[in-house]
Specification:
- The chain is of the alpha+beta class.
- It is 15% helix and 24% strand.
- The protein folds into two domains: 139 residues, no CATH class; 276 residues, no CATH class.
- The strands form eight sheets. A five-stranded antiparallel beta sheet has the order 1-2-3-4-5, with no helix packed on it. A five-stranded mixed beta sheet has the order 11-10-13-16-15, with helices on both faces.
- A hairpin with a 2-residue loop joins strand 3 and strand 4.
- The longest helix is centred in the last third of the chain and has 19 residues.
- The radius of gyration is 21 Å and the shape is globular.
- One of its GO terms (cellular component) is apoplast.
- This is Phosphate-induced protein 1.
- Belongs to the EXORDIUM family.
Length: 450
């Protein structure tokens, strides 16, 4: 699942994040849904997920959950009254805290305007958790904090090798047969926009692209295998397409109605999309006037599999939205920047369409994870299959050597001033790196130190 990687937090519910000078943005959440998005440039705390009364911090090093027991930490909690209680949380990551457990944290409400100290007039209290180490695995090999643990947060290169990432194979299927991407164009799409996306998908298997290339990027994905040792297919090709230009399910979609859109495409009376669960991927792309549940605030794209009760088949699929009108500064970054950041200029997009160029990296992210974890039971880090940390999640926001946090890493600039990091068949693209489980760090074809 691709989530926003922002250079600074939105000005709502922002609390200091240690010497990073940034903090955690907390948006509306509820039990069992994604939690806050970590937006400071310290690489350890990436994002969290709230499951009932337990917070699971998903970091660059994996996903770590604590029940009632673990390290002692100090958490500042702001309680805000708005018909129901709300909570925001800031963690001083400068002291090396990587996981935090907060009990009975209630649904967060979104506040208008920046979180100034006036907000503390409601309720401010400090919570101390003095607890012994949990039995479950944690991000450090030793059971007690030491000097190395405390220094780790500030010293580790985001894209560098890490012994603390536990990406494992959970014996589920991966896509070893030739992969066919069936596309559903939902809403109004221009021909030029479709051409950009089609060429990116076709470039994954192209053999003669100028290096660094999209096909070189895919070679990292190919290294993943199934339980028989067979690698993921090197062949990714475009399949059939379906146009849903009349918004058959409206301009506001939920996660379940997305599956209904796919059902309509595979059961259409005329030119239905073929159903091939073993090698077919279904890519639903929504135009810039369509809102999807959790879009912009929590995700820019996600993947899952369809339910037979809705679609009639179990099919791996991904959704990616065009954020050009709704939130370009969130999901098309760095080709657009948030309005609340003065003086920061966006990069020039390589294909002249910031919204679609921003989609390209999200599409690559989701296709890579669909290939390695199509049914959410194959390759992922962390102990919870409901909230897996997948091969692209570990490298979100990294486009080149030295990348991490809000810095994209070393990229290239064309003669026209456009920013990119890899070549397609004829076009250029900016695509995030993915995790290399053999080398144990994020890699890409444009790396300067590999």
């Amino acid at each position: 699942m691709y989530r926003p990687v922002l250079p600074w937090a939105e000005p709502d519910l922002l609390l200091p994040g240690g010497e990073c000078g940034r903090g955690l943005r907390v948006g509306p959440r509820g039990p069992g849904r994604e939690g806050p998005v970590e937006v400071h440039n310290c690489s350890l705390l990436r994002r969290s997920r709230n499951r009932g009364n337990d917070w699971r911090w998903r970091s660059a090093m994996g996903s770590y959950g604590l029940s009632q027991g673990s390290i002692a930490v100090v958490v500042t909690v702001v309680m805000v009254v708005d018909t129901v209680a709300a909570a925001a949380m800031a963690v001083d990551v400068n002291v090396g805290i990587k996981v935090v457990w907060v009990k009975d944290l209630v649904t967060v409400r979104r506040l208008p305007g920046p979180p100034v100290p006036v907000l503390l007039s409601f309720n401010l209290f400090f919570m101390f958790l003095f607890i012994s180490p949990v039995i479950g695995w944690r991000p450090w090999p030793n059971q007690k904090l030491n000097a190395t643990d405390l220094e780790f947060g500030g010293s580790k290169k985001y894209e560098g090798s890490s012994e603390f990432v536990h990406l494992k194979y959970h014996m589920g299927p991966v896509l070893t047969a030739n992969i066919t991407v069936h596309t559903i164009w939902y809403g109004t799409w221009q021909k030029a926009q479709k051409r950009i996306i089609r060429e990116f998908i076709n470039s994954i298997s192209a053999v003669n692209s100028k290096p660094p290339s999209v096909s070189g990027w895919w070679k990292t994905v190919q290294q993943y295998t199934d339980q028989t040792g067979k690698n993921i297919s090197r062949t990714v090709r475009l399949g059939e397409e379906k146009n849903d230009r009349f918004y058959s399910h409206g301009k506001s979609l939920t996660r379940l109605s997305i599956q209904s859109v796919i059902k309509s495409a595979v059961t259409a009376r005329t030119h239905p999309l073929p159903t091939n669960p073993k090698s077919g991927l279904y890519l639903l792309l929504t135009s810039d006037d369509v809102y999807v549940q959790d879009f912009c605030g929590q995700v820019c794209g996600f993947h899952y599999f369809t339910f037979p009760s809705i679609v009639g088949y179990t099919l791996p699929y991904a959704w990616v939205g065009n954020s050009a009108k709704l939130c370009p500064g969130v999901c098309a970054y760095p080709f657009a920047v948030p309005n609340y950041i003065p003086g920061l200029k966006p990069f020039k997009s390589p294909n002249g369409d910031a919204g679609v160029d921003g989609m390209i990296s999200v599409i690559g992210h989701e296709i890579a994870e669909l290939a390695t974890n199509p049914l959410v039971n194959a390759w992922y880090a962390g102990g919870d299959p409901i909230f897996p940390v997948e091969i692209a999640d570990l490298c979100e926001g990294i486009y080149g050597t030295g990348g991490g946090g809000s810095y994209t890493g070393q990229t290239m600039n064309g003669g026209d001033g456009a920013t990119y990091n890899m070549n397609g068949i004829r076009r250029r693209f900016l695509v995030q790196w993915v995790w290399n489980h053999l080398l144990n760090y994020c890699t890409g074809p444009n790396a300067l130190d590999q």
